[in-house]
């Protein structure tokens, strides 16, 4: 069975950075993209970007270019999403998800709550 | 403002059939397939429909998807109280080096 397990909740101050991890199991880590999606309180789903765990190649949403970095460590089959220069608008639940053909996302991780507060 | 447009809310009574629309453009729905997600409070989103109309194993055939041109629809028949959730459409968009776009979400209420 395929699972994606994310790191725990984070509380950060404005201007800081946060790094969230995502560890899939149940399939070959390098075979599928890992996507990152967030949901701010009361808002809808918002795509941040994706990484190809095999090549390390990335696509980022234009809104987050320059502020988001997605990486992976093939030796421990883990993907990471680093978001810098945090503001209160970045307070959200962050999800990773496996990307299948035509970018349908399945399954999703359990979500990581990132709270930005002074 | 979302690239894909969905109605913010929809409702129906148990047993009814409801439809949720999703409107996009030539760079997303018009040239790529549409996926639909169900998001229940306190849980991770779950794919309901992929590649316009395909259902993953385990998703009841009460859920169906369709697409025409730059618009897509999700239909739910035999509405149940457990279907009360937020529903999102999504598609790959070929502009700006490629990215995924989501609809704003539709909150379905079962009356």
Main beta sheet of chain A: 7 strands, mixed
Strand content of chain B: over 45%
| Unreliable residue stretches of chain A | none
Strand content of chain A: over 45%
- Tell me the total number of β-strands of chain B: 9
Structural class of chain A: mainly beta
The residue-averaged pLDDT of chain A reads: 97
Report on this structure:
The complex is a heterodimer of chains A (118) and B (111). Chain A contains no helices and 11 strands. With 118 residues, chain A is mainly beta. In chain A, strands 2, 4, 5, 6, 9, 10 and 11 form a 7-stranded mixed β-sheet that branches. The mean pLDDT of chain A is 97. Helices cover 0% and strands 45% of the residues of chain B. Chain B is built from no helices and 9 strands. In chain B, strands 1, 3, 4, 7, 8 and 9 form a 6-stranded mixed β-sheet that branches.
Task: Map the helices and strands.
The complex is a heterodimer of chains A (118) and B (111).
Chain A: E1 3-6, E2 10-12, E3 18-25, E4 33-39, E5 45-51, E6 58-60, E7 68-73, E8 78-83, E9 92-99, E10 105-108, E11 112-116
Parallel strand pairs in A: 2-11
Antiparallel strand pairs in A: 1-3, 3-8, 4-5, 4-9, 5-6, 7-8, 9-10, 9-11
Chain B: E1 9-12, E2 18-23, E3 34-39, E4 46-49, E5 63-68, E6 71-76, E7 85-93, E8 99-102, E9 106-110
Parallel strand pairs in B: 1-9
Antiparallel strand pairs in B: 2-6, 3-4, 3-7, 5-6, 7-8, 7-9
């Amino acid at each position: 069975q395929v699972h994606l397990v994310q790191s725990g909740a984070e509380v950060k101050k404005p201007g800081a950075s946060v790094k969230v991890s995502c560890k899939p199991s149940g399939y070959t880590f390098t075979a599928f993209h890992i996507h990152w999606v967030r949901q701010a309180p009361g808002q809808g789903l918002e795509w941040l970007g994706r990484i190809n765990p095999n090549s390390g190649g990335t696509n980022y949403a234009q809104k987050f270019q320059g502020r988001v970095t997605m990486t992976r460590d093939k030796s421990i089959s883990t993907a990471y999403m680093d978001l810098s220069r945090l503001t209160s608008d970045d307070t959200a639940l962050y999800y990773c998800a496996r990307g299948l053909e035509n970018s349908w996302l399945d399954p999703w991780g359990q979500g990581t709550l990132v709270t930005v507060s002074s | 403002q979302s690239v894909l447009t969905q109605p913010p809310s929809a409702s129906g009574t148990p047993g009814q059939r409801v439809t949720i629309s999703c409107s996009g453009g030539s760079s997303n729905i018009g040239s790529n397939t549409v996926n639909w997600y169900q998001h229940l409070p306190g849980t991770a989103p779950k794919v309901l429909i992929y590649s316009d109309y395909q259902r993953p194993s385990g998703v009841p055939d009460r859920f169906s998807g369709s697409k025409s041109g730059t618009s897509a629809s999700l239909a739910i028949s035999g509405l149940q109280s457990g279907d009360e959730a937020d529903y999102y459409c999504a598609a790959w968009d070929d502009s700006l080096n490629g990215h995924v776009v989501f609809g704003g979400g539709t909150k379905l209420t079962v009356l």
